[in-house]
Amino acid sequence: MQPTNLGEVDLALYDVIIVGARVAGAPTAMLLAKHGHRVLVLDRGSFPSDAVSTHYIHQAGLVQLQKWGLLDEVVAAGTPAIRLMNYRHGDIDLIGFADPIEGIDAVYCPRRTVLDEILVNAARRAGAEVVEQFTVTDLVFGESGEVLGVRGREGDGEVRELRARLVIGADGTHSQVAKRVGAELYNVRPAAGFIYYSYFSGVDDWGLHHKTGFNHRWFGSWPTNDGLTMVATICALDQLKEFRTDPETAFQAVIDDVEPAMGAQFRDTARRAEPLRPMRYPDNYYRRAHGPGWALVGDAGYHKDPITGWGITDAFLHAELLADRAHEGLAGERAMADALEEYVKIRDEISAGVYDFTTVMASMELPPFFDAVLRAIGKTPHWTNKMLGLIAGGVEDHEIFSPDNLERIYEDAGFPEAKRIYDPTA
């Protein structure tokens, strides 16, 4: 579908302007347009185009795509289905797969060139106006400090002023919207590592791996589009300076260190299709995500370490949550401030467990409680798949971590009484 040109559209007041048209912005636009609102989406890029990403969509995120009628498009684009997870942390193995969630029995890891274009086109079909290559340079404020719109330019054109009842920042960790409104951070936890990744042929038999070694090193692999496998490494931040001196050698060394047999195969058969891409991500954080005339969604308002691959899934879940609450405010069903406050409250509640788990795993060093529980879980297929279901978003925390269930896990594994730990703070 062709992008909208601002010279061709009526520039009267919009209901919503969304800054950013990727995995958070495009679904928010689609859903608000389906509610009947006039939505303008501005993105400094053009589509299809790539983005730094884990690519991974958990089953909970695929449920959203299925609900929106878009999962079939992801599959039709040649995105491989993955139905086995090989997880290792040190000498703990979890090999299996989560039970189906609303009929979805696989995960998919599409290239962002594929996924983002599907989402943007869905927003257009729903009635949203999408303007590509538009750079937002500032916000428009009213006398009381409320946000009234945005300023920016399309391509090399003149600066334009566009007005809306609500401006949504879906423009990532370095969000201009968040910066202009002074959105404060909270619950900040320092970043633990950095990533290098690329796409490879010659390792088609690998499937999905998520493996942490003993030296604060991790590597993962997952099949993606075009017959390629994405392979990534994560190392602790104190290894970054040395890694940068020779990234290709260091990349190979991580795989050798974590899984020597796979390292040998990688050296012999893997063929890199694109340059290695570095990702030094910011600290984990929540941002104040609403105020008079504005809201934030996706990484603009909440970001965590990519090691658990929950970024895209959370973007989908929070996009729908924001769209539903913003619609209530726009339709006059409740005060917009109350609706957006509830959006943030629910967002923080439903993301807290993933946030805590992710920041623990990002350290690549398990606390005694998690070490004991995961060792016991790995002894039985039932609890292995249950744990993978929690990671996939289909199992609630208490189904594993309640005292009664911890007791069952340890009993089923025949775990020695002296090694059982029940207190997460131990």
Describe this structure as you would to a colleague.
The chain has 426 residues and is an alpha+beta fold. It folds into three domains: 6-50 and 113-187 and 283-355, FAD/NAD(P)-binding domain, CATH 3.50.50; 193-279, D-Amino Acid Oxidase, Chain A, domain 2, CATH 3.30.9.100; 368-419, no CATH class. 37% of the residues lie in helices and 23% in strands. It has helices at 25-34, 59-67, 71-76, 112-126, 176-181, 240-245, 247-258, 260-269, 311-330, 336-362, 368-377, 381-392, 398-401, 403-413, and strands at 14-19, 39-42, 85-89, 92-96, 129-131, 134-141, 147-154, 160-169, 185-189, 193-201, 208-212, 217-223, 229-236, 271-272, 277-279, 284-287, 290-291, 294-296, 302-303. Strands 1, 2, 5, 6, 7, 8, 17 and 18 form an eight-stranded mixed β-sheet that branches. A hairpin with a 4-residue loop joins strand 11 (208-212) and strand 12 (217-223). Helix 1 (25-34) runs parallel beside helix 4 (112-126) and helix 1 packs parallel to helix 9. The longest helix has 27 residues, at 336-362. It is globular and about 65 Å long. The mean pLDDT is 95.
